[in-house]
Write a structure and sequence with these properties.
By secondary structure, this protein is α+β, with helices and mostly antiparallel strands. The chain is built from eight helices and nine strands. The chain is globular.
């Protein structure tokens, strides 16, 4: 979920492991051919289905290895009944202290894992699709309480924990800032999940930040909430 990436600080937090695929002293970089080291599998031409296949593969790996996690972002919205309109990548939320173990699980399965400049996630590639493993949502570390509230849902036939609707909507809304305020991406999700979300809680969690307030105003004018 790259929603909160544009204005994220680049100061690495204490306790977040600096994950590297390359030898010590070398800087990691995304692979030139993301599909070269992936398990062979024929994927449909439809990008949405390709993203779903990546979500299923990574979710199954994390679940099989006993990691505490939850599907996030647009694929999570789809799992809750939203539109099949994935936004560029797959997002998973994990605790900061689990980042190294999760990265090791993905590497052992043959996926490419690397550390981007942003210090709130690690990235992987599965079936040629980008996967964001996020341990900070809207500038807050992901906690066990949020992951334990996740609902186990079927994601295109594979069951896995998915962020609860209120947590999911908060993570999208609280990330808005003057540098990132793409209401168009969040609006269909708000429409689809509106009866499942505790909107008062989302308002409280967002405080008096101006961009979330503008989004709430739009939702009110459109009779979404």
């Amino acid at each position: 979920m790259t929603q909160n990436g544009d204005d994220a600080t680049l100061v690495r937090r204490a306790g977040i492991p600096d994950l590297r695929m390359a030898p010590e002293g070398a800087e990691p970089a995304p692979p030139q051919d993301p599909q070269a080291d992936q398990p062979p599998q024929e994927l449909p031409l439809d990008r949405n289905q390709a993203i779903l296949e990546a979500a299923k593969q990574v979710g199954a790996l994390l679940k099989r290895n006993g990691h505490l996690f939850a599907l996030a972002g647009s694929v999570a919205a789809y799992a809750h009944g939203g539109e099949k309109n994935m936004q560029h990548d797959v997002d998973f939320a994990i605790r900061p202290e689990d980042a190294a173990a999760v990265a090791a699980t993905l590497r052992e399965a043959g996926l490419t894992v690397y550390t981007p400049p942003e210090d709130w996630l690690i990235k992987a590639t599965c079936f040629g699709q980008p996967v964001d493993i996020i341990f900070e949502l809207a500038h807050r570390p992901v906690g066990a309480d949020m992951l334990e509230r996740a609902e186990e849902l079927s994601v295109d036939s594979v069951r896995m924990p998915v962020l609860a609707p209120t947590d999911l909507m908060w993570s999208l809304t609280a990330a808005f800032s003057e540098h990132h305020c793409d209401f168009g991406a969040a609006l269909p999700i708000a429409r689809a999940l509106r009866e499942k979300v505790d909107w008062e809680q989302v308002r409280r969690e967002c405080g008096d930040e101006p961009m979330p307030a503008a989004f709430f105003f739009l939702l009110e004018r459109l009779n979404v909430i």
